Amino acid sequence: MKLLAAIIKPSRLDAVRNALSAKDIHGMTVTEVRGYGRQKGHTEIYRGAEYAVNFIPKLKVEVAVTADQLSEVIDLVSEAARSGRIGDGKIFVLDLEDAIRIRTGERGTEAL
């Protein structure tokens, strides 16, 4: 099992959710996060004063999948989150040792 963690623009969340749902991949966790990568923030003007925004608001989308679903899910998230501009985000893949469904006690891929 794998845990896919994608950092995406907030405006792309619905596209990512719809792409995954269309392929029968359900269950995701979304967290509001802030950070920066190569773009290192930006400056904005508010009421005539310029100020630096060092941490850009993003969303972290986490999806647990089986190993055979991984490449398809990476492709779906990449295509749905891509705008072609700087700050589209990143995808991280982590090994998922175990998963337990609390209600039934199912473990492993059955719990996904």
TrEMBL record:
Keyword Transferase: no
Gene3D superfamilies recorded: 3.30.70.120
Source domain of life: Bacteria
UniProt keyword Phosphoprotein, yes or no: yes
PROSITE patterns in alphabetical order: PII_GLNB_CTER, PII_GLNB_DOM, PII_GLNB_UMP
Pfam families per record: P-II (PF00543)
SMART domains: P-II
SUPFAM superfamilies in the cross-refs: GlnB-like (SSF54913)
Keyword annotations of the record: Nucleotide-binding, Phosphoprotein, Transcription, Transcription regulation
Homology family: Belongs to the P(II) protein family.
Role this protein plays: In nitrogen-limiting conditions, when the ratio of Gln to 2-ketoglutarate decreases, P-II is uridylylated to P-II-UMP. P-II-UMP allows the deadenylation of glutamine synthetase (GS), thus activating the enzyme. Conversely, in nitrogen excess P-II is deuridylated and promotes the adenylation of GS. P-II indirectly controls the transcription of the GS gene (glnA). P-II prevents NR-II-catalyzed conversion of NR-I to NR-I-phosphate, the transcriptional activator of glnA. When P-II is uridylylated to P-II-UMP, these events are reversed.
Self-association and partners: Homotrimer.
Name the UniProt record assigns to this protein: Nitrogen regulatory protein P-II
Organism: Maritalea porphyrae
Higher taxonomy: Bacteria, Pseudomonadati, Pseudomonadota, Alphaproteobacteria, Hyphomicrobiales
Gene designation per UniProt: glnK
